[in-house]
């Protein structure tokens, strides 16, 4: 059985890898230039957004 990845699958893998790397490096870059209050506000907004996202998928 010969399994191959097509162009669209490989493109999706590359895009997801680039986004994933950015997710892990962005907080470090923001922490070096932002004030602690700005970082806390950012984490709070993100947390509230994640709660709304979880509630929207709740059964």
From TrEMBL:
One of its GO terms (cellular component) is membrane. It is a multi-pass membrane protein. It is found in: Membrane. Its main location: membrane. The chain crosses the membrane at residues 37-57. The keyword Cytoplasm does not apply. Keywords: Membrane, Transmembrane, Transmembrane helix. This is Arginine:ornithine antiporter. It comes from Vibrio galatheae.
């Amino acid at each position: 059985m010969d399994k191959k990845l097509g162009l669209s699958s490989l493109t999706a893998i590359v895009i997801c890898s680039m986004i994933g790397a950015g997710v892990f490096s962005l907080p470090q870059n923001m922490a070096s230039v932002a004030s602690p209050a700005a970082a806390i506000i950012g984490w709070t907004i993100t947390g509230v957004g994640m709660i709304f996202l979880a509630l929207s998928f709740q059964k």
